[in-house]
Task: inverse folding
């Protein structure tokens, strides 16, 4: 399976939602794709099948991005399968509505463990393993600019990720590796729709000037730009892919 000539991309959270769309798009752009997933093997297999049906190459590796050993195994598995790593997209994340209160501490800890600790581990390993000229991309959120009630723990975790992106870009000076973030606005995924009424969904969709929710493919297109040849001069930036939401 080792192919030293084809570029390879790792996509965490690549089994469904935005991560799946990113994996499919990068595969369509010619990357061999390594999908990292935390629990849903069936969804991961569906993504693999879709990539392979379109003529692409992909493997799936189970693991928790908040676990250092799992992240190490992900990168070692990618190198073993394809011989190199050129792009890393950290899309894995969790979102729970929780007010800033001691009663929300469990939700806060969960989001920090996955969203921020996970990003720290994935970005750190990417810094060590990505080839010269490669790309590192983290998913954050445009809701940072809105400060909606009950988004405090989620916003805190994703604001931390944006800070890591800027610092890592400077730490990789001289290696020709770009480090950027993509911050989606509201996107019609299971993660976003869960627990919301149709009225709430319609209201949120109306907030952006384009008056619709984003699609996973919208976000995948932004990631593909940063991962592709036209994104080579973009570094240490947060691309807010949100239709004007914020």
Result:
């Amino acid at each position: 399976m080792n192919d030293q000539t084809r570029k390879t991309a790792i996509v965490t959270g690549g089994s469904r939602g935005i991560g799946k769309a990113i994996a499919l798009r990068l595969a369509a752009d010619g990357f061999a794709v390594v999908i990292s997933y935390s629990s849903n093997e069936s969804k991961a297999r569906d993504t693999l099948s879709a990539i392979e049906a379109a003529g692409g190459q992909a493997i799936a590796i189970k693991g928790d991005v908040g676990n250092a050993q799992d992240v190490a195994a992900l990168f070692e598995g990618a190198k073993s399968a394809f011989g190199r790593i050129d792009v890393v997209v950290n899309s894995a994340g969790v979102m729970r509505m929780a007010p800033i209160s001691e009663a929300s501490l469990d939700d806060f800890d969960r989001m920090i463990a996955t969203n921020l600790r996970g990003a720290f581990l994935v970005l750190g390993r990417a810094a060590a393993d990505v080839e010269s000229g490669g790309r590192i991309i983290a998913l954050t959120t445009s809701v940072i600019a809105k400060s909606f009630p009950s988004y405090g723990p989620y916003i805190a975790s994703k604001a931390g990720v944006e800070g890591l992106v800027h610092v890592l870009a400077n730490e990789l000076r001289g290696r020709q590796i770009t480090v950027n973030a993509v911050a989606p606005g509201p996107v019609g995924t299971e993660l976003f729709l869960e627990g919301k009424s149709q009225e709430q969904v319609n209201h949120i969709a109306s907030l952006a000037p384009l008056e619709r929710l984003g699609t996973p493919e919208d976000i995948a297109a932004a990631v593909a730009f940063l991962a592709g040849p036209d994104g080579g001069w973009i570094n240490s930036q947060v691309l807010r892919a949100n239709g004007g939401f914020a």
Summary: Residues 105-129 form the longest helix (25 residues). Helices lie at 17-28, 41-53, 68-82, 105-129, 152-171, 190-193, 198-207, 216-227. The radius of gyration is 17 Å.
